[in-house]
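Most newcomers find our protein records easier to grasp once they have seen one. A learned vocabulary of local backbone shapes supplies the integers on the structure line. An example says more than a description, so a record of this kind follows:
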Amino acid sequence: MNKLIYIMDPLCGWCYGNSENMLAIKKEFAEQFEFEILAGGMWIPPHTRSGGSELRNFMKQHVPPMVQTTGAVVSDPFYALANNPKYTFSSLEACTAQVLVKELKPEVTFEFASAVQKAFYQDGSPLNVLSTYQPILTTLGVDTTVFESKWMQDENKTATKNEFNKASTMANGFPTLLIELDGQLGKITSGYFQLEAMRSHLEQFVAKAN
């Protein structure tokens, strides 16, 4: 079966704004395509961002256009987190969580990624603590005990680094949607996409394949 590959990062605002569209595409085209999600590693050590007024102002400048375009909800608690000098904006913890869920229950990885971004942007939940992930894991039926034993361990971090390396050879920015047809990889789009336009685009691929 042909495949759609979605490359994103949990800290990427446009990925968050696009998450509902991607979930809809995954549901609608489940019989026509396999789906794979790759964590991009946008802000990873040593290139993380510390909270504080500078980061809050950066977010206040760059997040509203995403909100206006996508309709996604971004809360005051999120901006408060960005303003907290004790909090570090790092993709690593959420990406390792996403890679681990892909290992433990791969069929819910897209849903997990979307739920984590909602927790971050809507609730202002920190991504470096287990408590942010536990209710999401429970809802999606992922074994929380196994997750806790493996999350951020060396094996988990190595698998995540390998995924970062793979993603870096396939995309220059996030989100990026790729299609693999008959073993050939091509880019469908980079950045946020409109659902209706993407649906029509993919229907054309399906029609040609048939």
